[in-house]
Amino acid sequence: MLDIISKLKEKLKALNSLKLRIFIALLLFGLVPVSVYSYISSRLFLSTAISQRISELQSHATIISNLVVNSNFMNNDENELNELNTELNQVADVYKGRILIIDKKLNIVKDTYGLEDKKTIISKEIIDTLSGETSKYINKNGQYVELSVPINNNETNEIIGAIFMSFSIENIYSLYNLRLQENMTFGIVIMVLVVIGAVFLVKMLSVPLVNLTKSIKQITAGGEIDDNISYSGYKELEDIGESYNSMLEEVKKIDQARQEFVSNVSHELKTPITSMKVLAESIMGMEEVPPELYKEFMTDINSELERMNNIINDLLTVVKTEKSVSTSVVTAVNINEFIEGILKTLRPIAAERNIELVYETFRPITAEIDEVKLGMAFNNLIENAIKYNYDDGWVRVSLNADHKFFYVKVADSGVGIPEEFQNRIFERFYRVDKARSRDTGGTGLGLAITRNAVLLHRGAIKVYSKEGQGSLFTVRIPLNFQA
Q1: Got the DSSP string for 249-282?
Q2: Could you write out the DSSP letters of every residue in 158-187?
Q3: Nearest alpha-carbon partner for 414 in 384, 446, 443, 374
Q4: CA gap 234, 229 in Å, rounded
Q5: What one-character DSSP code corresponds to residue 323?
Q6: Domains of the chain with CATH codes
Q7: Is the Cα dihedral 222, 224, 228, 232 positive or negative?
Q8: 424 DSSP assignment
Q9: Which of 142, 133, 141, 147 minimizes the C-alpha distance to 54?
Q10: How many other β-carbons are positioned within 10 Å of the β-carbon of residue 208?
Q11: Distances from the Cα of 44 to the Cαs of 36, 51, 280, 323, 435, in angstroms?
């Protein structure tokens, strides 16, 4: 039972194929118009042919009516009857039908078949015709038409009789059936051509999509990333190719960043581990180690452990700030007091080097933020401005807002950042001066944490700096948190 359900699901899944849908669409758009055209054109031919036949019969009926009046046929005047009989017989033969001439007393005066002469006919159509109405009847099953036309004496304006005409339209239906067969043959030829064209077009369209799918599966499976794919001929495929190539570039960057990240983590953790191993082996290789030396070695080991702990904590912080907004705890916060609280914890650090810490605020501001994550971001910016500054320097923090965003600027009189490094300072583990960073206890993750926290709030961060002339970081955060 499960196998049957599984096979059924596979078949239903196949119906979702883009190739199948394109094929069906092309088939329908090709066959439906041809079928509709064949049917409508055939029916239009039939309707036009019958209308034309009736029009011709009406013209002949008018001629016969005039001959009846002019020949005084109703009063049995034999003069000029030859012309009338000739017209009657000729029309009856040509159109393969029957003509009756009826007087106003409903007597059949003339029957081209010679079967109903001198008999009386009682018919609603004939009675209506004697009242001045022309009637016609089309029998599609029997394939014949009936036409009743009054005989009007124009001189006396009197209706003196009626002409009843019954004619076969089998030849018209024969032509209609032949036309229909020709259209069907034409439709079959078109159907074959459409099927061939649809198969060719679907195959041509699916090849690049199949190649794209294979490339994506290869990337998903962890294989090598192929070079860029180039599509030409169709704008949509070119757009897909460009989008894919853009994605591929991003994947390459991410893969490269991942490798660099693993390498940097390994390097950062390996250094303190190696130091501790050397210190431990040194102690173990000594006999009767003096307490002072033992204490010095343990202090160094503890420093390396503290450094490893800082690296791990920063890595965890990076992971937390990279999580989705669903993990954020957003509340309405007084930003003025929020920044003041961060500065309060950093003032002692600035005081140790006599660095002036100035805070400027221009208006009361309340915004929806994740206080913990954004607190780490601003703390990193201001702490870096203090760390990478000169003694007796200054750090200025300003806060302002408009109707949509609030802005925080952190400026310092510090060492600055060389221009060629400014576009990389937000990368994880990247340090402009690795030796100096290690001296100040940095792990190279602070600005990466800051950037992630800002982006989590749908904000933006920029840096302006000149080497030896200080730096300026500007942060823009929406007042309303955007999920």
Answers
A1: HHHHHHHHHHHHHHHHHHHHHHHHHHHHHHHHHH
A2: EEEEEEEEEEE-HHHHHHHHHHHHHHHHHH
A3: 384
A4: 14
A5: S
A6: 41-175 (3.30.450.20), 235-317 (1.10.287.130), 324-478 (3.30.565.10)
A7: negative
A8: T
A9: 147
A10: 19
A11: 12, 10, 103, 69, 92
- Yes or no: say if 130 and 150 are a contact pair by the CB < 8 Å rule: yes
Is the four-CA dihedral 473, 478, 479, 483 of positive or negative sign? negative
3-state class (DSSP) for residue 461:
strand
What is the residue type of 401? A
CB atoms within 10 A of CB 220: 8
Write down how long the chain is: 483
Query: 193 falls in which pLDDT band (50, 70, 90)?
Result: confident
pTM over 0.85? The answer is no
| Whether pLDDT at 367 is above 70 | yes
Closest CA to 461 of 321, 360, 314: 321
3-state helix, strand, coil in the chain (%, to 5): 60, 20, 25
| Tokens read off for 463 | 């840096």
Residue bearing tokens 């807002």? 401
Say if residues 121 and 148 touch (Cβ distance below 8 Å). no
Q: Report whether pLDDT(9) > 60.
A: no
pLDDT tens-place string over residues 32-59: 777 787 788 888 888 888 888 888 888 8
Find tokens 């989008």 and name the residue: 243
Q: What is the pLDDT of residue 393?
A: 92
CB atoms within 10 A of CB 404: 9
Alpha-carbon distance of 262 to 243, in angstroms, equals 28
Please say whether the beta carbons of 378 and 337 come within 8 A: no
